[in-house]
Design the sequence.
């Protein structure tokens, strides 16, 4: 299963929606555990260009956003 969390960002001339977390896990067997593959993104200003991309199998946490 793949889960994608999005954020809406006001650019001043409109709103863009970008993925900030992508989680890949087995059919409920690894979701919410350190067995899921998680990728988090941070973006440069008002663009879709990622500044930071963090991936790995680590305990999930919730982003403020």
Sequence:
């Amino acid at each position: 299963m793949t889960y994608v969390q999005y954020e809406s960002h006001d650019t001043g001339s409109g709103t863009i929606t970008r993925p900030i977390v992508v989680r890949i896990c087995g059919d409920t067997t690894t979701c919410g555990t350190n067995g899921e593959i998680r990728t988090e993104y941070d973006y440069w200003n008002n663009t879709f260009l990622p500044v930071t991309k963090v991936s790995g199998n680590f305990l999930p946490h919730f982003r403020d956003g």
